Amino acid sequence: MAPPPFIMLMGLRGSGKSTVGRLLAARLGLGFADLDDLTAAGLEKPNAGAAIRAHGFEAFRKAEAAALGRVLSREGLVLALGGGTPTAPGAADLLRDRVRSGAELVYLHASPDELRRRLESTDTASRPSLTGAGTLDEIARVYLERDPAYRALCTRVVETEGREASEIAEDVLQREGREGLRGRD
Question: Is this structure's pTM higher than 0.85?
Answer without folding.
Answer: yes
